[in-house]
Amino acid sequence: MSSNNSKLVTKNLYSKNAKEYDRHRLQKLRGRVLSEHDIALFLTMLPVDLFKKNILEVGAGTGRFTFPLLDTDSRMKILSTDINDEMLSRFRKRVLTEELKGQSRNQIEDVFNLSFKDNEFDFVFGIHLIPRFIKFEDQYEALNEISRVVKPGGHILFNFRNSNSPYRIFYKGYSITSQKINSMLFDFKLNAIKTKGKWLITRKLLDLLPESFSKIISLLDKALWRVFPLGAWDVFILAEKIGPGQNDLEGSEK
C-alpha cells in the first residue's frame, strides 16, 4: 500500500530529528515563536468541555500540543500515540518530570492501523500529522482511520496544507485542495464546525527575517485566522462526526 512509503518516510525523518526536535522548536527563538503561535491556534479550536471525555492524540511526537492541552484542566486525561518510539521516549521523560503520569498515557500506534475499537473516543486530534503524508491516498487513509475510532457526536481536530493558497508556490511539501478535504469530510460523515487558517507565519519566513520581526508576524497572522480560512496556507479544522438523526448541514463557525 502507498501508505507504507508515507509511514516510513515520516518515521525515519523524526527518528533522525528526535534529539534535536524540542531544542529546534521550543528553545530557539524562531522555533519557539512558531510553536507558541501554533499552540495558541490549537487551543482556540478545541471542543467545549473535555473533562471526563475519552481523548486520543495521534502523532504526539514529544508532546508539543499535549502538554499545553493538559495545562488547561488538571482533571483531563489523554492517551497520546506516535509511531516513533524515540519521540515517545522523550515524551515519557517529560511526563515524569512534570508529574503528569496520572493524566497522560502513551503508546506506539500506527495511524493507518489503529488498535482501537470503532467509535471509542469522544475527541481525537493530530496536529501537523496529515500534512506529513506525501500522497492524497495516504492522507485519505489516515483521516479515514482516525474518523473510525471517533464516536458519533464526537470531534476530530486536524490541519492540512492548502494548495489553494498562494503560498503553494514556495511550499515544497505535499499540499491538498480544500475541495478534496471537504470531499473527505463528506465521505467520513464529518461536519466541519470550526475552521481557522495561518496566512503569514511560516518557519521559512521567520528564518529570512530578523528575529525581532518574529513576534510581529505572529500578531499579524493571529488577526487573520478567521479571514477566509480556506484560502490560508495551513488550515485547522474541528469536525464533528455525524450520528444517526443529525443534520449534516448544520451551521459552522468559520
Outline:
This protein has helices at 3-27, 29-44, 66-71, 85-97, 136-148, 178-187, 203-208, 214-224, and strands at 55-58, 78-82, 104-108, 121-126, 150-161, 190-198, 234-241.
Secondary structure elements and pairings:
Blueprint: H1 3-27, H2 29-44, E1 55-58, H3 66-71, E2 78-82, H4 85-97, E3 104-108, E4 121-126, H5 136-148, E5 150-161, H6 178-187, E6 190-198, H7 203-208, H8 214-224, E7 234-241
Parallel strand pairs: 1-2, 1-4, 2-3, 4-5
Antiparallel strand pairs: 5-7, 6-7
Task: Please tell me about this protein's structure.
The chain has 254 residues and is α/β, with parallel strands linked by helices. The protein contains 8 helices and 7 strands; from the N terminus they run H-H-E-H-E-H-E-E-H-E-H-E-H-H-E. A 7-stranded mixed β-sheet has the order 3-2-1-4-5-7-6, with helices on both faces. Helix 1 crosses helix 2, helix 1 packs parallel to helix 4 and helix 2 runs parallel beside helix 8. The longest helix is centred in the first third of the chain and has 25 residues. The chain is globular and about 50 Å long. The model has no long low-confidence stretch (mean pLDDT 88).
